[in-house]
Design a protein that fits this description.
With 330 residues, this protein is an alpha/beta fold. It is built from 10 helices and 17 strands. The strands form 5 sheets. A 7-stranded mixed β-sheet has the order 9-8-7-10-11-17-14, with helices on both faces. Strand 4 and strand 5 form a beta hairpin. It catalyses: carboxy-S-adenosyl-L-methionine + 5-hydroxyuridine(34) in tRNA = 5-carboxymethoxyuridine(34) in tRNA + S-adenosyl-L-homocysteine + H(+).
Length: 330
């Protein structure tokens, strides 16, 4: 069974220590009640991942663990087969003992668009909401963050993260908790909170923004990345059924509307730092993710539209600062 004991130990003497009042019971309930059919199989695979301390670890320009020189050809093949059990790999890429996990998303491209527009992460405590398998968490740690916590309710993402962490070494202060943000008490503790690729999945985007705000210390920074459309501050797309074959897309605002929402939630210094149309090279099927991908979600006769006729995915990055709340609005 996956244990969170080392996480509890690391937060005991930190500004997150009051989380210990509620977190063990929340995660204990998850461990008792989460009955995903593949979880026992995945945990057995995790228990087989015993490898030497990697001779190379790089989280600054990539997520690279091991040069590939430490394992024999047979060991490398076995490790590749074990990691393949955790398919589909969606966020990455990873290089593990010479094995290149070519994930569906080139998440490194998104990180390149983000990293130069945010406050330096050195010595900061960071929360990554909807972190997936944890690729961006490792890059945040590579930028000097002293402690990184990711939350994502998917047991597959948890196992993918655990696989990477066990091979890299469990001493790194990077942790993934299988929770949704609605399960977190207001912590008011993180220096930086990321929410990338989550907002459009939330039925209430304003509630999500306020939940993100509740995790930040005063003066902390929010980095919000989401799907957007063109238009003025009143422009919001609400798909009738599906968007890009996804049935859990609720609100796609314009950049101007998104900035207005953040300002209404008492964020200051709100600015859009990047807008980018997702390319077929950034999101695609690979041998590590063999399901449908972006090309299948777009109109084959006009890739500027989804198969439903909506504008093709365009993503914006918004950066903002938590300000003192207006008590009249609380």
């Amino acid at each position: 069974m996956i244990s969170f004991g080392s996480f509890y130990q690391q937060i005991a003497d930190s500004n997150l220590q009051h989380w210990l009042e509620s977190l063990p019971s929340i995660l204990g309930k998850w461990q008792r009640e989460h009955k995903h059919g593949n979880l026992p199989k995945w945990e057995k695979v995790l228990n087989k991942l015993h490898y030497p301390t990697p001779d190379k670890v790089d989280f600054t320009t990539s997520v690279t663990i091991g040069s590939g020189a430490q394992l024999s050809a047979g060991q490398t093949e076995k490790l590749s087969n074990l990691l393949g059990i955790f398919q589909p790999w969606r966020k990455g890429p990873f290089s593990i003992h010479g094995i290149d996990i070519d994930t569906e998303w080139r998440s490194d491209w998104k990180w390149d668009r983000v990293k130069n527009h945010i406050s330096p992460l050195k010595n900061r405590t960071v929360l990554d909401v909807g972190c997936g398998s944890g690729y961006h968490m490792w890059r945040m740690y590579g930028e000097g963050a002293k402690f990184v916590v990711g939350i994502d309710p998917s047991p597959l993402f948890l196992c993918q993260f655990e696989a990477v962490k066990r091979i890299a070494g469990n001493h790194h202060p990077v942790h993934l908790l299988p929770l949704g943000i609605e399960e977190l008490p207001p912590l008011d503790a993180f220096d930086t909170v990321f929410s990338m690729g989550v907002l459009y999945h939330r039925r209430s985007p304003i509630d999500h923004i306020m939940q993100l705000r509740d995790q930040l210390r005063m003066g902390g920074e929010l980095v919000l990345e989401t799907l957007v459309i063109d238009g003025d501050e009143n422009a919001v797309l609400v798909p009738t059924e599906r968007y890009g074959k996804m049935n859990n897309v609720w609100f796609l605002p314009s950049v101007a509307a998104l900035i207005l929402w953040l300002e209404k939630c008492e964020f200051t210094n709100v600015r859009c730092v990047d807008v980018d149309v997702t390319s077929l090279a950034e999101q695609r099927s690979t041998k590590w993710m063999k399901n449908e991908s972006l090309v299948d979600y777009l109109d084959p006769n006009n890739i500027s539209l989804t198969v439903e006729g909506y504008p093709a995915p365009k993503r914006a990055i918004i950066v903002a600062t938590k300000n003192q709340p207006n008590l009249d609005l609380v």
